[in-house]
């Protein structure tokens, strides 16, 4: 097999303090290669290949924490989810949470078009049902209201003129949070970032990249799906049913949860580019999200 032009010696791409915690690396240092692979927009993700197998290393950037990622909570939740077969195994967690080493899952990731396919939606829903039934571990708390208010403060500190528009959105967010709340749903483990690049598998679905995982309302996972992929909206009832939430969440509740995650996505993009040159593609994404919030 020809080597990818992007593939190099692992030691040329990844620091030694990381590689020393990759299982099997010490015994195959000279043969170990790596390449940066597609993943999130903040962290650097590397695929390491050795005679003993393949593994994933993800290097965490400080920007992720500003945007709401909690890497300590992530590791705890992914370990639990991996035991139930819905997440890659965690092989090493850096005590300072600078990086993680994980099992490599082969296969093609989903595409945006998959969210218009009812069979894909059913698979996603049943996988989320499995996830939401896992007894959640004790982890740091998650407060969606605090998250969006924190984003508002960061934006206004740089662009004070946006305060009034943001405050109007946050007042609507308070109403939406109240409208989608239900005592019939217990707090569960959620993934929290169901982007197509975080889903892999056709017969069996794996959920990757748990940095926005939390213990909270399971309806938020479904709201995240519809916020990211409006083409899934015609299958909202199927998603509720396959996720086991049809009896505890109404379509109206799901619409409110979806609106909240459109808001989270908009604020995430807005905070991410603070102080950076405005790129046309990012500005277009923000405008689309903002229009959906009206």
What structural keywords apply?
294 residues; alpha+beta; Phosphorylase Kinase, domain 1; Aminoglycoside 3'-phosphotransferase, Chain: A, domain 2; 6-stranded antiparallel beta sheet; 11 helices; 10 strands; 43% helix; globular
Describe the structure.
With 294 residues, the protein is α+β, with helices and mostly antiparallel strands. The protein folds into two domains: 8-103, Phosphorylase Kinase, domain 1 (2-Layer Sandwich); 112-293, Aminoglycoside phosphotransferase (APH), C-terminal lobe (Aminoglycoside 3'-phosphotransferase, Chain: A, domain 2, Alpha-Beta Complex), CATH 3.90.1200. The protein is 43% helix and 13% strand. The protein has eleven helices and ten strands. The chain has a six-stranded antiparallel β-sheet with strand order 1-2-3-4-6-5. It has a two-stranded antiparallel sheet with strand order 7-10. Strand 2 (33-36) and strand 3 form a beta hairpin. It is globular. The mean pLDDT is 92.
| Beta strand count | 10
- Strand content is 5-15%
Oligomer category: single chain
The CATH architecture name of the largest domain reads: Alpha-Beta Complex
Order of helices and strands: EHHEEEHHEEHHHEEEEHHHH
Mean pLDDT: 92
CATH topology of the largest domain: Aminoglycoside 3'-phosphotransferase, Chain: A, domain 2
Count of discrete alpha- or pi-helical segments spanning 4 or more residues: 11
CATH homologous superfamily heading of the largest domain: Aminoglycoside phosphotransferase (APH), C-terminal lobe
The class by helix and strand makeup works out as alpha+beta
Largest sheet: spatial strand order:
1-2-3-4-6-5
């Amino acid at each position: 097999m020809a080597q990818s032009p992007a593939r190099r010696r692992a030691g040329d791409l990844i620091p030694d303090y990381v590689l020393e915690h990759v299982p099997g690396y010490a015994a195959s240092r000279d043969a170990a290669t790596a390449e940066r692979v597609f993943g999130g927009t903040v962290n650097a993700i590397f695929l390491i290949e050795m005679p003993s197998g393949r593994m994933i290393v993800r290097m965490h950037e400080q920007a992720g924490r500003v945007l709401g990622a909690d890497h300590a909570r992530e590791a705890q939740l992914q370990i639990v989810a991996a035991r139930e077969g819905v997440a890659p195994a965690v092989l090493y967690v850096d005590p300072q949470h600078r990086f993680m080493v994980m099992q490599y899952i082969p296969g093609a990731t989903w595409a945006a078009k998959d969210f218009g396919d009812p069979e894909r939606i059913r698979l996603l829903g049943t996988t989320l049902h499995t996830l939401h039934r896992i007894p959640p571990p004790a982890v740091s708390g998650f407060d969606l209201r605090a998250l969006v208010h924190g984003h508002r403060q960061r934006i206004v500190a740089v662009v004070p003129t946006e305060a009034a528009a943001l405050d109007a959105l946050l007042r609507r967010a308070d109403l939406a949070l109240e409208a989608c709340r239900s005592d019939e749903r217990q707090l569960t483990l959620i993934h929290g970032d169901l982007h197509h690049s975080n889903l892999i598998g056709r017969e069996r679905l794996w959920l990757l990249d748990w940095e926005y995982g939390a213990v909270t309302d399971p309806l938020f996972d479904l709201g995240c799906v519809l916020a990211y992929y409006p083409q899934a909206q015609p299958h909202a009832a199927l998603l509720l049913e396959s996720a086991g939430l049809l009896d505890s969440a109404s379509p109206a509740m799901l619409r409110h949860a979806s609106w909240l995650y459109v808001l989270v996505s908009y604020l995430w993009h807005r905070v991410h580019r603070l102080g950076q040159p405005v790129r046309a593609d990012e500005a277009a994404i923000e405008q689309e999200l903002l229009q959906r919030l009206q």
